[in-house]
Amino acid sequence: MKYKITIFDYLLSVILLCISILPFFSIKTFLQYQNNNYIVEIYQNNSLVYTNLVSVPAIVKLKNATAEIKNNKVRIKESSCNHKICIHTGWIDKPYQQIICIPNKVYIRILSKETKDKVDSVSY
Fold first, then answer.
1. Pick from 11, 13, 55, 102: CA 20 to 30 A from residue 112's CA?
2. Backbone angles phi and psi of 108, in degrees to 5
3. Residue 95 CB: number of other CB atoms within 10 A?
C-alpha cells in the first residue's frame, strides 16, 4: 500500500515546524527585555566607584584602567597590567558574571535588581 503525500501533509509539517520554533524567539525577546533590570557595579580598592543600569552607555575612567558600558554589556577597555587577563575576559552581560583585575584591584560585576540584596544560597 503506497501513501501519497498531499498538500495537507505539507501544510501540517509547516505548522508543526512554526510551532516548534516559536518558543526560541519568545525566550530571546523575553531575555532582551530582562537586561533593563541589570545593574553594573565597579569597585576599585574595595570601594564602590560606579553603579548604574547596564542599559546606560558610559566610559568609566579608573586609576589604571578604563571600563566601557555599551549595548547592555560591560568590559575593561584599557588596563596597565602586564598580562591583560581582564581585557581578554571580554564583554559580560549576564547577572553574576564578573571581571577581576588583580594588579589594579578592579572588580566589575553585573547584578539583577530583583536579586541584588538577596542571599543566593545558604549551607548548614
1. 102
2. -120, 135
3. 19
d(CA 81, CA 84): 6
Which amino acid makes up residue 45? N
- Name residue, grid cell 587577563: 85
Q: What is the CATH number of domain 37-112?
A: 2.60.320.10
Backbone φ and ψ for 111, nearest 5 degrees, come out as -125, 155
Distance CA 110, CA 89 (A): 14
In whole angstroms, give the CA distance from residue 104 to residue 22.
46
Angle, alpha carbons 81-73-111 (nearest 5°): 95
Going by the DSSP 8-state scheme, the letter that residue 92 receives in this structure is B
Give all strands of the β-sheet with 58-61 in edge-to-edge order.
58-61, 65-70, 73-79
User: What's the pLDDT tens digit per position in 65-90?
Assistant: 999 999 889 999 999 999 999 999 99
What single letter denotes the amino acid at residue 25? F
Domain coordinates in residue numbering, the chain:
37-112
Name beta bridge partners: 38.
112
